[in-house]
Structures are given as C-alpha cells and as structure tokens.
Prior knowledge:
By secondary structure, this protein is mainly α. The chain is built from 16 helices and no strands. It has helices spanning 2-25, 49-55, 61-64, 69-72, 79-90, 96-108, 114-122, 129-142, 148-161, 167-179, 183-191, 202-211, 218-223, 230-242, 249-255, 261-279. α6 packs parallel to α8. It starts with a helix and ends in an 8-residue tail after the last helix.
Amino acid sequence: MRQWLRVAVYGALAILVAVAVYFVKNPPFSTEPSPRLDVPYSPPPTKAPEMATFANREAPYEKRVTADIDSRLPETKSTLDSSAAIQVLMDTKDDDAVRNEAANLLRRSACKDLSSRLTRILWNPQEGERFRSFCVQHLWLNLPKAGEAEKAEIMATLHKCLADKHLAVRREALLALVREKDAQGSELAVKWLSAPEGAEARDLAIHSVYELGLKERIPEVRKCLADPSDPVRIAAIVVLSQWGDEASRPAIEEAAKSKSYRLQNAAQMALKRMDAAKKAQPGEPKG
C-alpha cells in the first residue's frame, strides 16, 4: 500500500513538472510589450508668434533655425513658450540642431531645471551620439551660473562621461574638464597621450596638455609627430610650434614636404610661427 502511494505521489509530481515546463515554453499570455500606437504629432501651443514656427517639428528647418535666432528668440517670456521649448529639447524625433538651439534658448531664459533635463537626455538609451555630445557641451556652459549642488552634479556627470560608450561624449567631457582645470580631466589628458585607449582622442589630449601649460609633457607630445593619424600629427605640430620646441623642427620640416595637404599646410604654418617667435626674442631684432 505504501509503495502504491509513493508511486502515485511521484507520478503526480512528474505531471506537475511537465505542466509547468509546458506553460513556461508556451505562456497563456504574451510577455512581449504591447505595440504602441503612433499618436499623430501635434505642435506644442505657444504664445509668442515667433515661437510657433520654431516649436513646430514639421516646419522647414531653415525657418526654424535662422542666422538671427539669438535676437529673434532672445528668451521665452511665458510659461507656454518655455514649455514649448522644453518639448523641442526633449523630442528625440526632432532635428539635433533645432534641439541644440532649444537648449540655448532655455539657458538664455534662465530655465532652472535645464541641467537636470540635459542629464536625463544624456542617459536616455534612445538618444544618438551627436546630441548626447551636445548635452555635455551644454552642461559645461551651465557651470558658471550653477549653484554649488548643481555644479557638483554637473561635474559628477562629466567625470562619468569620460568612460562613455560614445567617443564624441568622451571627447566633450575631457574638453570641459580640462577647461575647468579639473584634476581628473588633467590626469586623463596626460594618460591619453600614450595609452592605447586614448588613441581616438589623442589629438584632443595634445591640445589639452597645451591648454593646461604642461610643458614637461613635450617629450610625449614630440613622439606624436610620428603618429599614423594625421589629426594627431597636426595637433602635435601645432602645439610644439606654439611652445617653440626647436628639437621638433626637423620632424616638422619633414612634414612640410608631405603629400597630405593638411599635414603640409599645418607644418608650413608651424615653421613660420617658430621663425617669428625666434625673431621676436629679447635681444634680437623684431620682425
């Protein structure tokens, strides 16, 4: 009797396991997200007539972003227009350049939560590399008027961006931090002069150490004169000539004969710069 009961229990368990496996493989309900119905686009309401075209995603680009946009739209003067500018900024389907101007407009209008909105955009997985890099630029532009708490948040975001998946974001973050004379940015700029992970931003690292006045890094910059990348070589030529590094002259003279027009032009300009600096030295006649 006990043996029969044990067999029955085991049999029931086997059936339960089989049923569970079936429903895992064939759920009675869909685990896929429900398809979103596209809602027809509707331009945000505006108060000022000049905002109506700018805020309308379907208006021609050349009418939305004009050469006189700073004077045409100096600031938003109503809550309605501010909301419209915010909608343009946050709209992932709108043009990057228009959204960039929306950020500029909101800054001119002293939008209090602009930094937090830019940060939200920055970490939105739907955003592309180009506009994400714009957001980093705008965060840096917000620093001068930011309070202590906001400034700390912006700096933390810039530090995080140094390891971002997008090259353009990493470059803009480094540039911003170098301009702020930030220790972590300065350290990374020096590291990227030679580290493999800095190869794609080495030209920026060269300009950064110059901006930071790190003349002791001249030997490392000098090695970049032989870099396979033209932008890196050009950056090294420009910076070394600005520093008047005569030890680099032979390599720069060689670059002046290059078949690459950009490299040749940069080297020729560098030689003129170095020659002019030598003539202007104290005790020598000035040209």
